[in-house]
Every structure is written in structure tokens, then in C-alpha cells.
């Protein structure tokens, strides 16, 4: 339908944006880039266009322009929540390229801009675990779970940490919430199987 709209009106901003989003989420970022670049060429520039262009460039392995797109996005943000979205995406790029220091700093800026950004707290917890700082990791996972209990990642990560520390009942409770949010999550299912064996042996 959006392609038909573009045939009738080649300047339809909404049609181009929706097609770009569709191609991005169907793992074709190199095609999505074309639509976002066209929007930029038409003079339609806001933080969302540059943010999406940065994400597409990263996933299309065009690393040379990825950060410059996010810089343009940051120049155009109008609210703290918008700023948090861009910094969260920058953290993903940093993690993907192995710059964990930049990733952690980006996540810190993200939660400073939006204290309710549960996904950022979860990822900060993962980075803290890599550093061996389990207390800080648990604190971040707990915050993410409190802010957004229906997101499975923080529930699973908290459950895995509790499992490693021998807190089996806490881990079991968190895994139940993880599987309730995402029943097909394989890692949660595997860990739940291990827990059931250990808990049955302890009875």
C-alpha cells in the first residue's frame, strides 16, 4: 500500500518513513537507508530521521557514517526522552564495535536523560557483570525490572545472576516472570530446567 502511495505521490513523507521502518525490521537495513536518505534530500530532517539513518547504517556495516548520523540526531533533539533514544542506540553501536567504555558512558547519559529507560538499566547491568561488579549489576537489573516488569531480558539476567549466587528461589521467581513475558525464550527455558532439577533434589 505504501508503495502504491509513493507511485501516486513520490514526496509522501509518511510512506517513505513507513517503508524504511518496514525494511529495517525485516533485516534489510541497506534498503531502508535509501528511504531515509531520500527524506534528508527532500529537506525533511528531524532527530528521528537521522537516528534511524544511523541505525540502518550500523546494521548495514556502513560504520564510517553511523556516528555522524547520531551526532546530527543529537543536534536536533528537543526533549530529554528523544536524547535518551539516541544515546541508547549509540550504546548499541559501541557494544557492537567493542568499545565498552563508550557503551557504558552512553547508557549513563541515556538514563540521566530518561530515568525510566528500563532497557538502558538492563544493559548497564550486563556491562557491570562483565566487570565482575555483581552488586551494581543486581541493582541495575532490579531497577529495570521495577520500571518495566513485562520485559523479559532484565528478568532473565537477574535470574541468571541469582542462580550463579546460589539464590535458587529468587532465580526461579524471576525466570517465571521472564517466561511469562516471552515463553519461547530458549535460555530462560534451559535455566528453568536446571533449576527444577536442583530444587527437586533439595526437597
Index terms:
203 residues, mainly alpha, Serine Threonine Protein Phosphatase 5, Tetratricopeptide repeat, 12 helices, 0% strand, elongated
At a glance:
The protein is an all-alpha fold and 203 residues long. It has a domain at 1-76: Serine Threonine Protein Phosphatase 5, Tetratricopeptide repeat (Alpha Horseshoe). It is built from twelve helices and no strands.
SSE succession: HHHHHHHHHHHH
Biggest sheet record: none
- Low-confidence stretches at least 5 residues in length (pLDDT < 50)? none
Number of strands: 0
Cα radius of gyration in angstroms:
20 Å
Structure, explained:
This protein is mostly helical and 203 residues long. The protein has a domain at 1-76: Alpha Horseshoe (Serine Threonine Protein Phosphatase 5, Tetratricopeptide repeat). It has 12 helices and no strands. It has helices at residues 2-8, 13-25, 29-41, 47-59, 63-76, 80-96, 100-113, 118-130, 134-147, 152-164, 168-181, 186-202. Helix 4 packs antiparallel against helix 5. The protein is elongated and about 70 Å long.
Amino acid at each position: 500500500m505504501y508503495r502504491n502511495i509513493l507511485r501516486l505521490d513520490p514526496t509522501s513523507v509518511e510512506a517513505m518513513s513507513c517503508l524504511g521502518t518496514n525494511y529495517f525490521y525485516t533485516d534489510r537495513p541497506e534498503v531502508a537507508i535509501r528511504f531515509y536518505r531520500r527524506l534528508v534530500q527532500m529537506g525533511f530532517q528531524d532527530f528521528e530521521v537521522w537516528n534511524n539513518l544511523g541505525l540502518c547504517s550500523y546494521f548495514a556495516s556502513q560504520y564510517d557514517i553511523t556516528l555522524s548520523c547520531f551526532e546530527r540526531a543529537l543536534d536536533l533533539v528537543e526533549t530529554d526522552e528523544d536524547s535518551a533514544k539516541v544515546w541508547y542506540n549509540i550504546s548499541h553501536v559501541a557494544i557492537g564495535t567493542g568499545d565498552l567504555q563508550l557503551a557504558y558512558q552512553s547508557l549513563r547519559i541515556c538514563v540521566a536523560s530518561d530515568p525510566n529507560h528500563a532497557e538502558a538499566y538492563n544493559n548497564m547491568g550486563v556491562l557491570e557483570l562483565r566487570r565482575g561488579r555483581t552488586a551494581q549489576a543486581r541493582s541495575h537489573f532490579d531497577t529495570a525490572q521495577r520500571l518495566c516488569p513485562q520485559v523479559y531480558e532484565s528478568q532473565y539476567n537477574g535470574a541468571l545472576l541469582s542462580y550463579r549466587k546460589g539464590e535458587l528461589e529468587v532465580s526461579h521467581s524471576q525466570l517465571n516472570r521472564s517466561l511469562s513475558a516471552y515463553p519461547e525464550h530458549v535460555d530462560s527455558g534451559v535455566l528453568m530446567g536446571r533449576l527444577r532439577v536442583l530444587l527437586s533434589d533439595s526437597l
